[in-house]
Amino acid sequence: MPQFSLNADLKYLKGVGPARAALLSYLGLKTARDLLRYLPSKWKDRRGLNEPLPHYVEKESVFKGKVISACQVYTSSAVLVFKALLKGDKGEAEAIFFRKKKGRFDPLIPLKKDFTPEKEFWLMGEPEPDFLKTRIKVSEYYPADKENIFLHAGSIIPVYPSTQKLSQKFLRELAFRVISDYLPLECEFLPQEILIKRGFLPAQESIKNIHFPPSLNALEKARERAVYEEFFLMLCAWGIKRAQTRVSDKGRIYEVKKNLLSPFKNRLGFEFTASQKKAINEIFSDMRSSAPMSRLLQGDVGCGKTVVALSAALLACENGHQTAFMAPTEILARQHYETISAFLSGLNVRIALLTSSIKPSERELIKKQAQAGEIDILIGTHSLIEREILFESLGLVIIDEQHKFGVRQRAALRGKGFNADMLIMTATPIPRTMALSLYGDLDISIINEMPPGRKPVKTYTASRREAFEMLEKEIKAGGQAYVVHPAIEENAAEIRSVKKEFEFFLKAYPQIKAAMVYGTMKYSQKEEVMRKFAAKEIKVLFATQVVEVGIDVKSATMMIIQNAERFGLASLHQLRGRVGRGERESVCIAVSENPGPLASERLKAFCRFLDGFSLSRQDAMLRGHGEIFGVRQHGDIEFVIADIYSDRDILMKAYEDKQELMQNDPLLKNQENALLRKKMLEMYGDKLKLIEAG
Ligand code: ADP
Ligand code: MG
Q1: How many angstroms does the Cα of residue 693 sit away from the middle of ligand 1?
Q2: Which end of the chain is more exposed for a tag (fewer CB within 10 A), N or C?
Q3: Is the CB of 242 under 6 A from ligand 1?
Q4: DSSP state of 183
Q5: DSSP characters for 450-503?
Q6: Dihedrals φ, ψ of 249, to 5°?
Q7: Tell me: the pLDDT tens digits for 4-58?
Q8: Ligand 1 mutation target, pool 265, 296, 303, most atoms within 8 A of CB
Q9: 561-589, pLDDT tens digit by residue?
C-alpha cells in the first residue's frame, strides 16, 4: 500500500512495477511529486477540430466512427493486413492495420475481436483521401467507450519528453492516476499578490490543466503559469546567489599602482577605445570593492576583449595576486600566451602556459611555481581546472569564449582561490532579457565599438568554382585565405571534407603554398602550420572549425566557408571574424551548393548583416527551437517548457515580480515566502550550490 504523500514511490503504483519504475527513474521520475512536475514538452490536438493552434500544439488527424464491416486482407507477404470500414460524422473511412507475424501467434486476433459491427472507435493515423472515402493507415486506436477516453482521444493530449521504451499512452495513464490521487497534496507556493496580479490559476488547477487541458484556452493559461514558474524560480535562485556574493568579503585590497599598467598602456601601440575604457573602469571598480567580482564582458568578435582582460590581470599582479586565464582550445591558449608575452615583454610579470601537450617535466615545474606564487599569469586550457593545479594566491579568474564552458568548469577554476574575482568573456551578443535568465548571477560590461580603422568584411555567396577563382586572385594580390569545411573526412556525398578539398587544391593550384589543419591533428603539427600561416609562409589554410574561435592572424584577408549551409549563424559569424583584422580589405565567401529554404535565409542574413547584434536578432527570427545564437546551454540552465525568445514577455513579468519581492526579502527568509523558497531549492538547489562555489 503506497503511503499517501507526495514522496510516494512510483514503483508501488498500480501498473508500474520494477521494470517500468527503472525506466521512469531514468527520466528522473521517482516520486508522485516528480510526476506532477513532469511537464509535457508539447501537446497534440486530437479533437478533430479546425482551429488555429499555438506553436506548442500539434494537430493530429483523428477519425471517429462506427464499424460497418471488417476483415483480414490476404497477402503473400510477412506482414498481415486487416481492414475495417467505419462510418462517422465526416463520412466513411477505411481503416488499414499492418501487423508483423510473430511466430505462431496471430497478431490480428485483438483486432478481429475489437472491430465488430456497430462498435465505435477513435482512430489516429495518416489519412489518404481516396475517391469516395478516406483511407487511414492506423497508428493508434481506442474504443469510444473506453474508460477515461479523454486521456487518449477527442481532446488535447500531452506529449512527454520520454524514452522510447515508455509509451506515451502509459505515461498519460500514469500521470492521470497520480493527478487523481496526489494532486490535492500539492501546495500553492506563489505569493497571493502575484496570483492576483498575473491572473494565474491556483497551483492544483494549473497542474491538472497542463497535463490534461479541457480547452486550448485553459492550456494557454496553465502553460503561461508553468513558464512563469520556471523563469521566476530561477531568477529567485540567481537573486539569492547575488545577494550572498555581495555580502561576502574577498579580503584583498587593490590599489591602482600603475607600475605595470602604465608601461603596458605605453607599449600597446594603440589607444583603448571609449568602450574598452568604460569596461576597464567597471572591472577595476569591482576588483577594488570588497565583494568578489562576477562580470561578463560581452563584445563582438575582434572588438579587443583580450587587452581589457589583461588590464585586469595586471591590476591583480600589481597587488601581488595571481591570475588564471582559461581558453577553450589549445591553439587559442597558445595564441593568448604569445600575444600577452609580447605585450608584457620587458615588464616584470611571470607568465606561463599550461595545456595537455606540455611536457610532464615542464608541467611539474609550472605546478610548483604556481603553488609557490612564482607565476603571475597562468594561461591554459581545461588543464587549469585539474585538481593538482594549485595557486598561492589566486585573485582573478579570466575565462575566454565562455560559451564553450559550463558553470561547473567556471566554479572549478574559481574555487582554486578564495572568493576570486571572475571575468568571463563572450562574443555571443545576448539580448538583455536573455542575459537576465542565462547569466543572472553576473554583472555585464559591453564593448560596442570596434578599434578604429577596421573595414567591414564584404560577404558573398558564390559557387565553389567562383570561390577558388577569387582565392587565386586574392593570393596573387598578396592576401592570405582560410578555407573552412564542416568535416575532416568524406562521410556523405554532399559534404566537402577538408582532406579531399586540400588534395584537390594541391593538384589544381600547385603554385600556391597551402596547408591543412584540423582538430584531431597532433598539437605540434597544428602549431607548426599556424606558425607558418602567421609568418605568411603558407598562403592558404584548409581547416575545419578549429579556426572558429579566437585565432588572430592579421594578414588573413579571405575566408571561404564550404558547405556553409551546415553552419549556424553564430559559427559563420565567428569564422568571418577571423578576417578583416588588418589593413587590407577582407572578403568572406559562403559556398553552398543547394541550401534548403531555411539555410538560404540564413545565408542571406549572413551576407546582409555584418555585426553580431543584428545577426543574433535575425537568428532569433529564423531559428526553429534549438540552439540560440551559439549559446550552448551545457546543462547550465535548461528550461523544460519556457523559451527565452518566444516567452520573453513572461520572462519580463517574472523579472519584475522577482525584483519587487526580493527588495523586501532578498534571501527569501521571511515566513510567508517559506514555501516559495522550498520550491526554489527543490528545483535549483543543486545548481545554486554549484553557483555558490563559482
Ligand atoms: P576579441 O574581442 O575578439 O577577443 P581581440 O582581443 O583578439 O578580440 O582583439 C582583436 C585585435 O584587435 C587584436 O589584434 C588586438 O590587439 C587589437 N586591438 C584591441 N584593441 C584595440 C584598439 N583599441 N585599437 C587597435 N587595435 C586593438
Ligand atoms: Mg578573443
Answers
A1: 32
A2: N
A3: no
A4: G
A5: PPTTPPP-EEEEE-HHHHHHHHHHHHHTT--EEEE-SBSS--STTS-BHHHHHH
A6: -120, 125
A7: 788 889 888 888 989 999 999 988 899 999 999 899 989 999 998 888 999 899 9
A8: 303
A9: 999 998 888 788 888 988 988 888 999 99
